[in-house]
Amino acid sequence: MTGMPARLAIVLLACVLPVRALAQPVRIGSKQFTESVILGEIARLAARDAGVQAVHERELGGTRILWKALQQGDIDAYPEYTGTLTQELLHGVAADADIATLRARLKPLGIGITDSLGFDNTYAIGMRQDEATRLGIRRISDLRAHPSLRFGFSNEFMDRGDGWPGLRRAYALPQTKVSGLDHALSYRAVASGAVDAIDLYSTDAEIPYYHLRTLIDDQHYFPRYQAVFLYRLALERDEPAFVAALRHLADRIYEQAMRAMNAAVKLDGRRDSVVAADFLGTRIEAGRRGLWQRLRQRSVEHVELVAISLGLALALAIPLGIVAARRRRLGQLVIAATGVLQTVPSLAMFVFMIPLLGIGTWPAVAALFLYSLLPIVRNTHAGLVGIAPELMESAAALGLPQRVRLRRIELPLAMRSILAGIKTAAVINVGTATLAALIGAGGYGQPILTGIRLDSIPLILEGAIPAAVLALLVQGLFELVERWLTPRGLRLQPRQ
Amino acid sequence: MSAAEVDGGIRFALDGASKRYGNVVALQPIELTFEAGSTTALIGSSGSGKSTVLRLLLGLERSDSGCVRVDGHALQPADVLALRRRVGYVIQDGGLFPHLTALGNLGLLPQHLGWEPQRIRERAQALAQLTRLPPDALARYPAELSGGQRQRVALMRALMVDPDALLLDEPLGALDPIVRHELQGQLQRLFGELGKTVIVVTHDLAEAAWFAPRLVLLRRGAVVQDGSYADLRDRPADDFVRQFVQAQRTLPAAP
Q1: ipTM of this predicted complex?
Q2: Domain containing B217: what range?
């Protein structure tokens, strides 16, 4: 049994070794919806054609995440809308502020803004074309004459001050049949006649598909949501060619074109990079990656996340478990603290990591690391505390120093419990790591996210199946490690 | 055993030592001396404090008052590790570590002291002969050994580095009568041969009388009588001693 610490060291090393260096090209981010991803892809291809090495960190999350990431320099640019800047991100700016005003406000933050890309993606109210024609409705104010119309609004629109409550006041709308819906479902609802009018984004691909009419905002209630790129001002010095390429996109993408691109990706299932390249009249890189290549890359990313976080957790959690077993009070405290960490919802945990560590692999590793602590600490503690008192006494009476007792007697006796804790942590990590794609760490979560966005079951399965297989593999691997590391004498049934 | 192993042993003394666990008094302040090379049996019912005496002598517990003297010197915490290496300790179920083979158990302390594997093996084989353990049992795990074999291995482990004293806490308590009888005989022979200070705790008066010329009877943490078996039987200090002696059943006469 002399080999036990050596064997444990091998397992630890195998977990920690595959740390990779991260290269630093220009990083373009995009939000978690199709239009943003297409714009991100357009920016990447435009940069590439301008000779700038750029990567697209796609579908990083919502507005807040992208805004933070840009300010911290985790990404260098991302597509945004002026309305979001005036309504959500900047304070004390008029809703109708022009881009020059915004540029002046952003400058002290170290952020630059391009001119409008050429289209607005504002909130709008839509109805079925035939129905609107029948009722003679062209403008939002026309709705006032039809109090019995049923509205189905997305939940966010229902709550936002600049959504339904404000709209109702501005236009003095009398309708009372108003229900909250998921945005993706609201198109089907209006198409089937379950509701008469819905909120929509003016560039949504579904507008022409479902033959909807966008009502004219005749009182100019909705703020403008002109599409722009935000970028770090430092790039004007460091990567002037990139900034030039971004600026060159201004006033080149019109609403019609954007809506067509959204439709091509969302309704026709074409790849966003292909659609973006077609728009720019350029080509995407040769050699489209096949399923196996994608799978391999994601597997590497996913396994790295799990292995690095688990390796780091082992290095801290086992000593913590030992300390907890030695000192009762401190032990309670340590276990309670790691328990609290465990109760933080995983999505929140990943988002908490962004201000501390930015986006990408490391914040994801940190979050997974924290989640791994509890099972390992608790099982190490339980394994050590559970050793029969007469064995502890025999060990003490032999005259061996404490550290030798720990290494030769206590840890081997607790080994089973410790390994079970590590196994639990590893399997949970495989599942939780799928959320890491939300903050740009890749892995199996990436196709799941895209699949949800595009409503594509095959894409979701492309991430979900490998994740499940990996969880089973990890489970199996640890069964083997357990057999290898558990002393044979502990597997025997005592003879009477 | 070679003559070199017959040496003086350790002189232990409890000098007003006492021990309580919470509200329970395990041992009242007690004066008790164990001469070097002597064999003593501590007897009494459970809870009488006899195991506590051993635990104090080994430094597994610290006395609340008074002190433990080893060869005349008060035992300090810093000396405990060195003392334990000079003392072999055997408990009721043997206390063998289930993740190690018999030989692995025997080798724990010697290995730490830097013994070569060959020396450990030879010493283990010699002790196996002494305790009549089948040589092939050395490669087995505790779970693969019989109760008697486990107890023999525990005794061997206590003897590996040739300690100056041997403390045994109900060493035969968990064994069936036949094995127990056999081991009683062997232990008695060993105690005589080794010339170490031996203190054996038992609740069985006959076993105590068989092992040791000196019996110390404890009750509720205090010494009731200290003498030979004949003293206890013929001149009991009080009614409790008389009852304790009488309580040892003899076989009924044949009809």
Answers
A1: 0.86
A2: 3-86+164-246
